[in-house]
Amino acid sequence: MIRLVADIGGTSIRLAHSTADMPDGKDATVMDIAHMACADFAHAGDAVGQYCEQHGLHVDAVVMAAAGQINGPVVDITNNHWRFDAGQLAASIGAKSYLLINDFTAQAVAHRGLLDPAYEGGPDDYQILRVGTADYVAPLLVTGPGTGLGVAALVPSGAIDGGENSLAVIEGEGGHTSYAPRNGDEAALLTELTARYGHVSTERIVSGPGLEAVYHIQTGQDLPAPLIGAAALQGDVAACNAVNLMLQSLATAIANMALALGASGGVVIAGGIVPKLADLLPESGFFERLSDHGRRRDFIDNLPLYLALDPYAGLRGAAAAYDNRHLAPRIIRL
Fold first, then answer.
1. What is the rounded distance in angstroms from the CA atom of residue 87 to the CA atom of residue 210?
2. Mean pLDDT on 121-126
3. Per-residue model confidence (pLDDT) at position 227
């Protein structure tokens, strides 16, 4: 049984294929990974069709992890021009079934090993930012900025037979919660963005486009997010100021979500931005902001913190999601 797996973000689509029936506890091996720019294709189906043709695939099932709200088969990617019907896309390549999930649902499933006390991730999987004390029967928060701010949580379901496929995923839209400033600079930023947008969500600041907006407001100059990050790593003061504000705002968002979910299983920071800026975290004010949460500071300070390093974790999580018992009712047969 051949499964096509797609991790569809605001900027990029990652594609691979895998086979089914992996033993419990083992990730499906994803093969022939491709990383394409969404801007290069008018429609998602064009990218998927090109990939299948290149690899001569006869697909039985498709798993699509998409950066957008999942409500029915129609997908409207939040931060790019793609809008498509997942069922029609799957049928167009001959698939007999499909599963449509949020991209951070796939990320959460990919990091399910962190709720296993015996799990030992490799150095290419995670950087441990803080060891903390994990509660393995509590939720694990998975969040992080890319083109937007993704949020999900992995929750032990208490199923009698246990096993990783008994873990349930909360698909969140936490990136669209209201931005919460904590100092004068952030309040000024909120004022300016409110005049522009009305409602200012957290991902208006904590994301690649958000970093660009922060830098523009602070300097009056336009610079792409990758160049802002690169300049900050070289010690440019203006770039560091913008990055530090974004990272502190991320810390506020993480603390708020962890408290709301009771995520004492730990926090995984995923997404495409923070791993590139990891060297800046110690001096950015991130950890100080994370701890600055009043009466529940001890809860926050005790959380294990992981920085996800695998750029293809979303593909591996999508491949494994098809076998998750809580997601199985969402598989659509064609």
1. 32
2. 84
3. 98
Which CATH architecture group holds 2-102+313-333?
2-Layer Sandwich (3.30)
10-29 per-position pLDDT tens digit: 889 999 999 865 444 455 68
Question: How confident is the model over 114-141, as a mean pLDDT?
Answer: 90
Q: Is the pLDDT of residue 203 over 60?
A: yes
Q: Could you count the other beta carbons within 10 Å of the beta carbon of residue 217? A: 18
Each residue of 250-281: b (16+ CB within 10 Å) or e?
Answer: bbbbbbebbeebebbbbbbbbbbbbbebeebb
The one-character DSSP state at 271 is S
| Beta carbons of 18 and 29 less than 8 angstroms apart | yes
Domain boundaries, given as residue ranges, for the chain? 2-102+313-333, 175-308
Domain 175-308 grouped into CATH 3.40.367.20: yes
Cα–Cα nearest to 328, from 132, 125, 103, 61: 61
- The Cα 192–Cα 261 span in angstroms is 31
